[in-house]
Specification:
The structure holds two protein chains of two kinds. By secondary structure, chain A is an all-alpha fold. Chain A is 73% helix and 0% strand. In chain A, helix 2 packs across helix 4 and helix 3 crosses helix 4. Chain A is globular and about 50 Å long. By secondary structure, chain B is of the alpha+beta class. Chain B contains nine helices and ten strands. In chain B, the strands form two sheets. Chain B has an eight-stranded antiparallel sheet, sandwiched between helices. In chain B, strands 1-6 form a two-stranded parallel sheet. In chain B, helix 2 packs across helix 3 and helix 5 crosses helix 9. The longest helix of chain B has 21 residues. The chains are: A mainly alpha, B alpha+beta. At the A-B interface, helix 2, helix 3, helix 4, helix 7 and helix 8 of A face helix 1, helix 3, helix 6 and helix 7 of B.
């Protein structure tokens, strides 16, 4: 992914304001990848990207040419975190049905699931289970390839907080993946 | 292996920082010395490297068909673009109408002791300003004010306009626009919309709520009511607000506003901005 980030950087002319279409074309996969890593599923990733693209349309009017990945990363993570906060304020998950037969999952057991899932799926799963504040920092660093300083600026948090959240996030993932990685 | 590792609460963030090349030379040298003497620390570094590399190796995600289509739920995006000249004309007409209202109503009612923020008008003014900002940055008149050129989050002052006794300052950075409406008076708390929540802004009570894609925050300081309107792209509007309250004009601005004709306040009310 870091390679992807470098390719985009070399292809894009960052001295002028891009059009909306250029952003969608040149940064689309980057945007979608960040969105997917943050949300952990395609439905939410698509919703997130759509909201980001709406803001890109508005934001391009005042965008000053420069680090477009940083700009997009900031919008994406902000939209994501806003969505998380909204969900916490107004949870929309349906209440469980009265009939337990219809509610109990039919998915395989944890062991079966472990055996049948690929490593990238496990990694994504562990990522998705991180607290949002940690997940955002891990994704910005290891998926979007942002520096600590960029992340601090994007999230308006101190550099030390970036460092500790990234470290804690990685440790939590390590604990969650210990069986998978060392089997 | 896991048993020998420190738990996730382990406090060695410098290990991650070293992995990412974010440590100073001296700090890295110090850490390397500690690593040489501490097996557990070396194990932790190795496991962190594994995790970091695994996440980095995830690679790009295939984009589903249609995921990058132009969003269709924003009506104005589908409308044919008006020419720059056209936009300016519309803005000029709006500004002229506003000016006429202020002029016509210049000698009416006294300024109320309590101020009821015209939320709908503020939101409309914010949206209109965001729209016009890209097309014609100098559309809205700039008036003298003590608003700072820059506030938190890299938000730069775009313009300041006065509508009656209300002052509207517009700030923007690369992806976010924030409007600050300032009007004299004591905040009429009982007139604020229901369904919001109370938060503390710089130790001041503030009332905040969402209006579609916008966040609105209202609070009072030094007999002046401030209304912040910002997009969700403002990420953490309450934090943005909090970090910016200290940069707001001092109370002498409120005094200046108080000296304005009370009638203009009435005009602003009629314009939905008072």
């Amino acid at each position: 992914m870091a390679d992807l980030s470098r390719r985009r950087r070399s292809n894009a002319d960052q001295t002028r304001v891009p059009t909306w279409e250029e952003v969608a074309l040149e940064q689309g996969q980057f945007l979608y990848s960040v969105a997917y890593r943050l949300t952990g599923n395609h439905n939410e990733a698509q919703d997130l990207v759509q909201e980001v693209l709406i803001r890109v349309e508005r934001g391009l009017k005042t965008y000053r040419p420069g680090n477009i990945e940083g700009w997009l990363g900031r919008i994406t993570t902000n939209v994501f975190l806003d969505g998380v906060r909204q969900k916490k304020r107004r949870p929309t998950d349906p209440l469980p049905d009265d009939n337990p037969e219809r509610v109990l999952p039919t998915s395989p057991s944890a062991d079966e699931d472990l055996a049948s899932t690929s490593l990238p799926d496990h990694i994504q799963d562990a990522l998705s289970k991180l607290p949002e504040d940690f997940r955002v920092v891990v994704v910005l660093s290891d998926v979007a390839g942002a520096s600590y300083a960029d992340i601090a600026e994007q999230l308006h948090i101190p550099l030390g907080t970036v460092r500790s959240r990234l470290h804690r996030g990685r440790l939590l993932m390590r604990d969650a993946l210990s069986e998978v990685l060392h089997d | 292996m896991t048993e020998r590792l420190r738990p996730a609460s382990s406090a060695h963030p410098e290990l991650s920082a070293m992995l990412d090349g974010e440590l100073s030379l001296s700090a890295e040298q110090d850490l390397r010395e500690r690593l040489a003497a501490d097996v557990a620390l070396r194990l932790e570094l190795r496991s962190l490297t594994e995790i970091r590399d695994a996440v980095r190796a995830l690679g790009p995600v295939d984009v589903p068909v249609g995921a990058l289509d132009r969003p269709s739920n924003v009506v104005h995006l589908r409308l044919p673009r008006r020419s720059r000249r056209g936009r300016r004309s519309v803005g000029a007409v709006a500004a002229a109408v506003a000016a006429v209202w202020v002029f016509v109503l210049i000698s009416v009612a006294p300024a109320p002791a309590q101020a009821v923020p015209a939320v709908a008008g503020s939101i409309e003014a914010h949206r209109a300003s965001v729209e016009s900002l890209g097309a014609s940055p100098s559309l809205t008149p700039v008036v003298e004010s003590s608003f700072p050129e820059q506030i938190g989050a890299g938000l730069m002052l775009q313009f300041v306009s006065r509508h009656g006794s209300s002052v509207h300052a517009m700030y923007a950075n690369a992806d976010e626009q924030v409007s600050i409406f300032q009007q004299p008076g004591r905040l009429a708390w009982d007139k604020l919309p229901a369904g919001g929540e109370m938060l503390l802004v710089d130790d001041l009570k503030a009332w905040t709520w969402d209006d579609q894609d916008l966040r609105v925050v209202v609070f009072e300081r030094d007999d002046t009511v401030f209304t912040f309107v910002s997009g969700y792209a403002g990420e953490r509007p309450s934090e943005t607000t909090a970090s910016n309250t200290s940069a707001l004009p001092e109370s002498q601005s409120a005094g200046l506003l108080d000296r304005l004709s009370s009638a203009s306040h009435r005009a602003a009310l009629l314009l939905g901005l008072g």
